[in-house]
C-alpha cells in the first residue's frame, strides 16, 4: 500500500509541474512600443498602434542585415476601439501571432488624446494590455503617436528603440525629462503636483524632403509636456525644461555658454557642467508658501573665444558670476511660466510640503488655480 501511495505522489508532482499552458516564443508577437491616440474620425474612441519586430529568416538580423534590402525590420499595426482593451483586442485580427505587451519599452500619447482626461485610460487600460511600469513615456507635440512610430529616427533602424535612446541622451543634458510609466501615474494621482512627459515633435527630414512628394519626417526632442488633472495644459521649451531640472538637481551633463564682460557678444565661454547639487526648502508664511532653491554647480572650461587671459583668478570669479546669473535666469523663467501660464506645480512643492508637515499638508499645499 505504501508503494502505491508513493507512486501516486510522484505522478501528482509530475502533473502539477508540467508546462500545460506554455506558449512558444516564435508564436508571440512582442510589442516594442505602443501609441494611444484619439480616433481620427472624431468619435469618442481610441486608436492603438503597436510596433512589432518582424520575424527574420535564418542568418538575417532584425536590423536588416544579411541582404534584407530596404524593407523595414518592424511592422506597425493599428486598431480602433471604445477602450484601450478593445482596441488591443482588435489588433489580433491582423496578426498571425499572439500579441504580448509584457516587454513594451515605450508608451506614446498623441496630443489630441492628452487634451482629454487621460487618468482613466492610463490607470485602467483594460485586459490584454499589461506592460511594465518601467516603460518610458513620451507625448507627441502637434501630432499623433501613430505618426511618431512611423517616423524616422536618425542613426536608428527601429523607431521604438531610437526614441528611447533619444530620450535617455537628451535627459542627461537637461533638455527633456526622462519619465517612466510609474512616475507618470504618480503625477496623475498626486493632489498637487503636475504630471510631466518628454515631448517629441515631427519635422521634415532635410535628406529626403521633397516639395512635391512630401518627404519623410524625422523625430526631434521638443521639451516637456505638462498635464494638470489629467489634461495637457502646455509645454516647457528645452531651456525651460533645463530650468526645472536645475532646481531638481537632475542635470548631469550639459554645456552652458556665458558672456565675458568686455568681449564681443559673439565670443562666449563654454562651460561644461560636471556636477550639480540642489536643495529645495519649502516654508509656510501665513497662508502662503515660499520655496528657497539653493544650487551649487561645478563646471570646467570647455572652450573660449575671448582675448583675455582666462587663467587669471579674476577671470574665474567673473565666470562663476556669469554662470550663476545664467542658471538663475533659467530657473526664474521656468518658475514664472509655471505660475502665470501653466498654473501647475511642476516643481512638486506640494509633495515636499507634505513630507515636511504631514498633518496639515492638504491645507497648506500650494494652490495654483
**Dominant shape:** globular
Structural class, judged by helices and strands?
A: alpha/beta
Gyration radius (Cα, Å) is 26 Å
Quote the beta fraction: 25-35%
Biggest sheet layout? 9 strands, mixed
Average of pLDDT: 82
In N-to-C order, the SSE pattern is HEEEHEEHHEHHHEEEHEEEHHH
Q: Outline the low-pLDDT stretches.
A: none
In whole angstroms, the N-to-C terminal distance is: 78 Å
Fraction of helical residues: 25-40%
- Tell me the number of helical segments per DSSP (H or I, 4 or more residues long): 11
Using DSSP, what is the number of strands?
A: 12
Structural features, described:
With 369 residues, the chain is α/β, with parallel strands linked by helices. The chain is 31% helix and 29% strand. The chain has eleven helices and twelve strands. The strands form two sheets. Strands 1, 2, 3, 4, 5, 6, 7, 8 and 9 form a nine-stranded mixed β-sheet that branches. Strand 8 and strand 9 form a beta hairpin. The longest helix is centred in the C-terminal third of the chain and has 30 residues. It is globular. The protein starts with a helix and ends in a 5-residue tail after the last helix. The mean pLDDT is 82.
Report a brief summary of the structure.
This protein has 369 residues and is α/β, with parallel strands linked by helices. The protein has helices spanning 2-16, 84-91, 111-114, 119-123, 145-150, 159-173, 181-189, 238-248, 313-342, 349-356, 361-364; strands at 28-38, 46-53, 74-81, 98-100, 106-109, 136-140, 195-204, 217-228, 231-236, 254-259, 268-285, 288-304. It is globular.
Amino acid at each position: 500500500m505504501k508503494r502505491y501511495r508513493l507512486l501516486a505522489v510522484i505522478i501528482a508532482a509530475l502533473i502539477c509541474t508540467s508546462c500545460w499552458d506554455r506558449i512558444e516564443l516564435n508564436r508571440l508577437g512582442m510589442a516594442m512600443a505602443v501609441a494611444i491616440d484619439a480616433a481620427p474620425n472624431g468619435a469618442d474612441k481610441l486608436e492603438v498602434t503597436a510596433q512589432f519586430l518582424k520575424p527574420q529568416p535564418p542568418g538575417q538580423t532584425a536590423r536588416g542585415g544579411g541582404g534584407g534590402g530596404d524593407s523595414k525590420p518592424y511592422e506597425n499595426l493599428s486598431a480602433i476601439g471604445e477602450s484601450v482593451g478593445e482596441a488591443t483586442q482588435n489588433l489580433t485580427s491582423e496578426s498571425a501571432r499572439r500579441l504580448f505587451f509584457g516587454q513594451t519599452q515605450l508608451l506614446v500619447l498623441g496630443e489630441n488624446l492628452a487634451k482629454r482626461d487621460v487618468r482613466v485610460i492610463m490607470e485602467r487600460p483594460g485586459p490584454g494590455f499589461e506592460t511594465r511600469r518601467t516603460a518610458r513615456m513620451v507625448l507627441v507635440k502637434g501630432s499623433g503617436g501613430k505618426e511618431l512610430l512611423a517616423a524616422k529616427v536618425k542613426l536608428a533602424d527601429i523607431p521604438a528603440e531610437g526614441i528611447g535612446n533619444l530620450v535617455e541622451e537628451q535627459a542627461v543634458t537637461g533638455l527633456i525629462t526622462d519619465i517612466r510609466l510609474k512616475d507618470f501615474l504618480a503625477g496623475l494621482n498626486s493632489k498637487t503636483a503636475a504630471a510631466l512627459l518628454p515631448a517629441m515633435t515631427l519635422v521634415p527630414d532635410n535628406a529626403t524632403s521633397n516639395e512635391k512628394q512630401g518627404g519623410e519626417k524625422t523625430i526631434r526632442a521638443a521639451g516637456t509636456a505638462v498635464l494638470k488633472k489629467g489634461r495637457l495644459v502646455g509645454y516647457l521649451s528645452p531651456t525651460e525644461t533645463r530650468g526645472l531640472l536645475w532646481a531638481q538637481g537632475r542635470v548631469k551633463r550639459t554645456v552652458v555658454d556665458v558672456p565675458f564682460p568686455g568681449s564681443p557678444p559673439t565670443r562666449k565661454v563654454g562651460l561644461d557642467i560636471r556636477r550639480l547639487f540642489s536643495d529645495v526648502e519649502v516654508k509656510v508664511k501665513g497662508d502662503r508658501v515660499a520655496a528657497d532653491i539653493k544650487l551649487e554647480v561645478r563646471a570646467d572650461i570647455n572652450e573660449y573665444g575671448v582675448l583675455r587671459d582666462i587663467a587669471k583668478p579674476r577671470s574665474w570669479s567673473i565666470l562663476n558670476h556669469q554662470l550663476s546669473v545664467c542658471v538663475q535666469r533659467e530657473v526664474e523663467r521656468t518658475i514664472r511660466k509655471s505660475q502665470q501660464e501653466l498654473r501647475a506645480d511642476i516643481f512638486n512643492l506640494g509633495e515636499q510640503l507634505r513630507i515636511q508637515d504631514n498633518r496639515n499638508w492638504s491645507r497648506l499645499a500650494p494652490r495654483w488655480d
